What does this fold into?
Amino acid sequence: MQANKEILLEVDHLYKTFAVKHHLLGHRVGTVSAVNDVSFTLYKGETLGLVGESGCGKTTLGRTILRLVEPTAGRIIFDGVDITHCSAKQMRSIRRKMQIIFQDPYAALNPRMAIRQILEEPIKIHHLAESKAASTQRIAQLLDYVQLPSAILYKYPHALSGGQRQRICIARALAVEPTFIVCDEAIAALDVSVQAQVINLLMDLQKELGLTYLFISHDLRVVEFMANHVAVMYLGKIVEAAPAAEIYKNPQHPYTRALFSAIPTIHPSKHKERIILQGDVPSPSELPSGCYFHPRCWKATEECRSIQPALAQTAGDSHQVACHFPEVN
Ligand code: SF4
It folds into this structure.
């Protein structure tokens, strides 16, 4: 444990595989490895940014941690409780503390419910208000948190802008008093001008309510701004993890270096040479031997093709890299 920090979430050698079935006969013809031996620790009040190309397993990892998808192996310890094998009934009370905000706020809201009903529903389900007046008061507080006027309560989702809908999704998540929120590409569908407002709102709420975030995003600039720590995923594995300031200054895994070289900058002194990755991401049902990144890596050797590198501590205090030949600046 780091000094003065309390652990909220421990993910320990987590795996999630899916069976690939024959499209006509229905029997198993293979396995997709979506989350492959992932371990990390998340401290209370902090944000872990999870980055990587689409299809790398970020979303499945977020959903497996919340037990929306059943883990294949490994352990998930939330607030000191091993929730890996909790029953659906046990998960009901635990899940109140673990919420998720999705990418598409329109699809996440029931179009037939007015905003008041949408916010009232979780309060009712979890018996969080003793009376109608208490529920009304709580809804007013939620609108206050997400900075929306009370007139919005009588509207339906289709009458709201994308930014307002996402604020309602955030308010609905907050209704059950969570301590942990998975933000799954939560700003990706919003206009750029609205994205900044929602990011600032999430950060203000984190300070005010002591929230802990797993912030899944392909937007590396937003993650740099939001996250305390960053983990980079490739084909279901974390290939590099470090404090945000450290990893952006000194990425050591070739994949991270390629990913970060694509971050646009207008500052000439910060201009980096763009690394264009060759080839496509291999299929997670046919994983390469050795290091999964070797078919696209310009530094690959015979060792890389045959031995899988473990995620190991490098020179930095809490900088971990899964590469036989990390590059240190
Ligand atoms: Fe490249 Fe080898 Fe490092 Fe994999 S282990 S990232 S192939 S240098």
About this structure: The pocket of iron/sulfur cluster is lined by residues 253-254, 291, 293-294, 297, 299-300, 304, 309, 323-325 (CB under 6 Å). Residues 14 and 38 are 5 Å apart (CA to CA). Residues 252-329 form one domain.
